[in-house]
Amino acid sequence: MLVIYLSLNNRKLGEEEAADRLEEIDENGDGNISWKEYLKDSFSMEEENEKNELIDFDSYDEEKEMIKSDKELFNAADLNKDGVLDSKEYVLFYSPEEHPEMLPIVLEHTLRERDTNHNGEIDYAEYIGETGKDRSREWLIEEKDRFDHLDENKDGLLVGNEVLNWVVPNSETIAKDEVDHLFVSTDEDHDDRLSYLEILSNYDTFVGSEATDYGDHLQNINHFIDEL
Questions:
Q1: Does 183 lie in the same domain as 94?
Q2: 85 has which bridge partners?
Q3: Which entry of 20, 41, 103, 116 is 20 to 30 Å from 11 by CA?
Q4: What is the DSSP string of 139-157?
Q5: What are the pLDDT digits (tens) for 184-202?
Q6: What is the CATH number of the domain that holds 71?
Q7: What pLDDT digit, counting tens, does each position of 3-17 carry?
């Protein structure tokens, strides 16, 4: 029950964060985000081809690539193609990996970044990237095991959903890890249940957890205990 609760809570937190960002970016206060408003807020540019004097010359190409990727995400999230993102569409843009309709563009961006031979697949060398050559043998073995686990058809390559399983976080797995952490840290009598006293005596741990919305849900402790 707590895993399901935390999964839903994480999604709610993402939506709240997106709403806060929309309000910050929405310069004209119409409840929508235009590409121009986003560009001005995130890159201090009025037009995407503008050369910002504050950008270091060496990072200009990287900046242009970021703008290109963000515009593709913006267009994908603009479901009704009216040129602006409303509050629901902005959630898709803000956290694309959490929404199935955005996964094709997430996959496209991942391949653009990591598929160095441009064959539409990720091999092990591309998977570990340039930093792999500086890693320890133990790290390489661990990552090879992870790669092999992701490679469902065992052809030595990650394709399509195999790539998405790598780059898109599984909200249920994340929630389960957080719940496991809470129980290991606070289930003092090891009965696989959290009592009222265990929660109170480990208050700092719960305040630092997404499971309680960083302590907010402890304002209604009885409701939270019901979830346990």
A1: no
A2: 33
A3: 41
A4: HHHHHHHHHHHH-TT-SS-
A5: 778 888 887 777 787 777 7
A6: 1.10.238.10
A7: 555 555 667 778 899
